[in-house]
Design goal:
- The protein is an all-alpha fold.
- The chain has 11 helices and no strands.
- The chain has one domain.
- Helices cover 76% and strands 0% of the residues.
- Helix 2 packs antiparallel against helix 3 and helix 9 runs antiparallel to helix 10.
- The radius of gyration is 23 Å and the shape is globular.
- About 4% of the residues have low confidence.
Length: 304
């Protein structure tokens, strides 16, 4: 592998993260939350660091949602913007995957089958017994609460809190949705930024893949990478590790006849680039610069 091509792919990915942070910053401003772009970028990299070390590829969104509330009084709207940002990102990813599948890949690939012993659906089906018994346990606990007066009182209190706070949350969601819908150009711009950013990042991985020996049309990259990114959202492993690497290698081997070792090398390079570009998030968290200055009692002193 040419180390300079690897470095270029990593830089392109890091720039892509900055563009994604800009997208989120625009969504925040839609809700009249005016934090500095610099703060949005730092919080985004902080979340990206935890995305690589928490289950699924969205664990860091919870961290980002928590810390952005320290920058504004509109705490619910600020936290909601993180998940709206995630939704816009997933829609953009889905659009790219769907476009390349429908126009370049569907006729070649033929019908997709999950009948193999190691099929993904069969793997999920193997856990249906666990799901069933968990459901039975929940029902038994609920019935046990109903049998006793104190249990029924606890259930009434829980339901009262759910109803009161649920109505407040629904009202805030409705208001936020109205605001987002009243700014269609901002949402469209966020979607365009997503598509351009992801195409640029995948093109960088294509250059890296060609250097490694995965010398196939870039259209396969656009489809396989976006599909695997969508799969990585599932809370199967930490940061989608193993699942995403195995899935990406399988797709290249299955549909492009690339050697397994070469395909896996490309998948591992993606993981390494993710880990390297997320390290600034760890530095940001340890230094505390992701928090507003007035968060600290001793804000005029340097962090020790």
């Amino acid at each position: 592998m040419d180390v300079w091509i690897f470095a270029a792919a990593a830089i392109i990915f890091a720039v892509g993260n900055v563009i994604a942070a800009l997208r989120w910053w625009l969504l925040l401003r839609t809700q009249s939350i005016f934090i500095e772009l610099r703060a949005a970028v730092m919080l985004f990299f902080l979340g990206w660091f935890y995305n690589n070390f928490m289950p699924s590829s969205v664990g860091g969104d919870l961290v980002r949602a928590w810390y952005v509330t320290k920058h504004t009084d509109k705490k619910f709207e600020a936290a909601l913007s993180v998940f709206v940002d995630r939704g816009v990102g997933m829609v953009g990813t889905l659009l790219i995957a769907a476009f390349y599948y429908l126009f370049f890949f569907r006729q070649q690939a033929g019908p997709v089958s999950f009948d193999t012993p190691s099929g993904f659906l069969k793997s999920i089906a193997g856990y249906k017994a666990i799901g069933f018994w968990l459901l039975v346990a929940v029902v038994v606990v609920f019935l046990a609460f109903l049998l006793f007066a104190k249990g029924r009182m606890v259930l009434r209190k829980i339901w009262s809190h759910i109803r009161v706070y649920g109505l407040k949350i629904i009202e805030k969601l409705k208001t936020a949705a109205v605001i987002y819908c009243s700014r269609p150009l901002i949402i469209f711009l966020a979607l365009v930024l997503t598509v351009l950013m992801q195409i640029g990042v995948i093109t960088g991985f294509w250059f890296l893949g060609v250097n490694l020996g995965v010398d196939v049309s870039v259209k396969y990259y656009y489809l396989f990478f976006t599909f695997i990114w969508l799969v990585g959202v599932l809370p199967v492993s930490i940061g989608g590790a193993v699942v995403m690497e195995g899935g990406l290698a399988y797709l290249f081997v299955r549909f492009t006849a690339v050697m397994p070792e070469t395909a896996l090398a490309l998948a591992l390079c993606q993981r390494i680039i993710w880990m390297l570009t997320s390290l600034p998030g760890a530095v940001i968290h340890l230094s505390g610069v992701h928090l507003p200055k007035d968060f600290f009692v001793d804000q005029n002193r340097s962090i020790d």
